[in-house]
Amino acid sequence: MRVTFLTILLTAAIACTPVRAHASQATDTASVQTARPGLIRRIIDYFSESNEPKTDKKFDISFIGGPHYSSDSKFGIGLMGAGLYRTYEADSLTPFSQSSIYADATTAGHFKIGIIGTHIFPGDKSRITYDVNFSRIATSFWGIGYEECRHDANESKYKYLNSQIRADYRVRFGKHFYAGPLAAFDYIHGSSFGNPELWHGEAARTFNFGLGVLLEYDSRDNLSAPFRGTFVRLEQQFNPRFLGNKYAFSGTKLHASQYCPLWTGATLAASFDCRLTYGNTPWGLLSTFGGSSNMRGYFEGRYRDKSAMTACVELRQHIWRRNGLAIWGGAGTVFAEFNDIRARSILPNYGIGYRWEFKQRVNVRVDLGFGRGCTGFIFSINEAF
After folding, report:
1. Taking a C-beta distance cutoff of 8 angstroms, is the pair 85, 95 a contact?
2. pLDDT, block means (10 residues), the chain with 385 residues
3. Domain containing residue 246: CATH number
4. Same domain, 191 and 303
5. Residues 111 and 233 reside in one and the same domain
6. How far apart are CA 56 and CA 220, in angstroms?
7. Contacts of 53 (CB under 8 A, 6+ apart)
8. What is the pTM of this model?
């Protein structure tokens, strides 16, 4: 703080110094004005200007990073970069394409690196969405199904290695409708199991290839921080044995979200997620929740079964300049069949978060989530949904 305050005082002093018609003084003033700013000043300027559109750049990317803490991953260091671009610069009506890269390492043995984004073709006639990531995690497993997962005594330590590639290509038809193919690859390798019986004899390592189709309706005004609109995405994926899968199964995934402006700076956002799998679903691809996206506050992967369902309502309020707050409430459950759902297996979720506009309509968020017997602290980029 002393250096920043001193910099402000010096800047103000230079700006207020009267100009003399003396050659040496003019030379000194010019040298002061053209001097390279210090490190702290450059850092301040970098973040203060990060949300301003860079019309002179074809690809506008900014980075942010620092320490963080969560109940499951403990202390860590994360680095994230967010980029915005247009495939045709003269087309100001087409939404920005976006791409984010991230890397994270923690004291609990978590390491993850990846890239995720949406590429929008000129005129928004088609889109490509991609997610490529690699993670190595020392984590816990509580079993399969709500009855096993709810018991704290079932916690079993193990190590988890995962490589994942997901991509889809969809073409627009009509004003807001899209449809197209999708593909997925997952390599999962678990090791050092504390209680192997919780895996029910399933293979520790699997390769999984999937193909499918999707149908999407998207009227959102922005991809990363919508103020209004509707987004519905329905996916059907198949992992058949003839693609080399040891475990043959299929899955249906539905996501629906609605965004409504309320008063000045306020948006009410609601989401519903449901993932159903059929067949011989491997343990690493069972439906689950938790982490940074849905049911924030729950240990990611603690509750898992063939199917999962979650719902959330969130109030997002802009407070001042680039700062905002969010509060949310929701619920979720996991199940093998719909008739397995019981009132006691529906888990509550609520929390509060801080938002800072890192780039234009791209927020860095810090969330504190609460669930049944658990608390989670999340540091991430873009809204949860």
Report:
1. no
2. 32 36 45 61 62 66 77 79 81 83 89 94 93 94 96 93 96 94 96 92 94 97 93 98 94 98 97 97 95 89 96 97 96 95 96 91 90 87 89
3. 2.40.160.50
4. yes
5. yes
6. 26
7. 60, 360
8. 0.81
